[in-house]
Design brief:
The chain is α/β, with parallel strands linked by helices and about 240 residues long. The chain contains 9 helices and 9 strands.
Length: about 240
């Protein structure tokens, strides 16, 4: 069974068509990158997969189940970290994780596991308000991993981080990938992030899929890397600063 199946999905906001007839499949354990500039439709597509928005047309299935009939079951198997995840500033890392763990009826054993996994042990007593950008992103990832998600959604998790913090987060995700128990859907503006982490790459622009496949399948004599491929497909640079917000 496909882990995720998107069938001819469309979504509009007033006169803007954000997603235009997108279809795709994602396999269990696959790490997938959704690439595209702001306005490409990738965040809207992911939010529909997460059950946060409803498609105007089409269908989305996760392990053969849809959000309309199986929301409670699907909430138990997904983890997500939104583009701007905010936590209570006056709680510590451990207190924040205990709070979210209680929603899943999980105890300190699992809190300890995700603190170790995300390398936050030295900061577990620190208040959220004192954390650096990289530490906040690791906390967001720790919260997303609490319930042992079979499907993990990360929306631009390293945007705005310094190179060292970005590499730290990549290493955590690579360790998760090696375990082979989690499917990852990652939106990103960084070509090297997609190349380093993901098995399958999907390039979107103006609400449509332009190309998808493994990296070696996408590149050719005119496109030696993802930056060149995106420019050739759209005439745009994917990682220009004015696209990163």
């Amino acid at each position: 069974m496909n882990q995720i199946e998107v069938r001819n999905v469309e979504k509009s906001f007033k006169d803007t068509k954000a997603v235009r007839g997108v279809s795709l499949t994602i396999q269990p354990g696959e790490f997938v990158a959704l690439l595209g500039p702001n306005g490409a439709g990738k965040t809207t597509l992911v939010e529909m997969m997460e059950g946060l928005k409803k498609p105007d047309k089409g269908e989305i299935l996760i392990q053969g189940k849809n959000w309309h009939k199986h929301e409670k079951e699907l909430r138990k198997i997904i983890g997500l970290s939104l583009q701007e995840t905010r936590f209570t500033e006056k709680l510590s890392i451990r207190e924040t994780l205990r709070l979210f763990a209680s929603f899943f009826k999980l105890g300190d054993d699992r809190v300890n596991e995700v603190i170790t996994l995300t390398e936050l042990a030295s900061k577990e007593k620190s208040f959220v308000g004192t954390l650096s950008g990289g530490q906040r992103q690791r906390l967001a990832l720790a919260v997303a991993l609490l319930n042992h998600p079979e499907v993990l959604f990360l929306d631009e998790p390293t945007t705005g981080l310094d190179p060292h913090s970005r590499l730290d987060l990549w290493n955590i995700l690579k360790g998760l990938k090696d375990q082979g128990k989690t499917t990852l859907i990652l939106t990103t503006h960084y070509m090297e992030e997609a190349e380093s982490l993901c098995d399958h790459i999907i390039i979107l622009d103006e609400g449509k899929i332009l190309r998808e496949g493994q990296l070696h399948e996408l590149l050719d004599e005119n496109s030696h890397n993802l930056d060149e491929l995106f420019i050739n497909l759209t005439g745009k640079k994917l990682n220009e600063e004015n696209h990163i917000k």
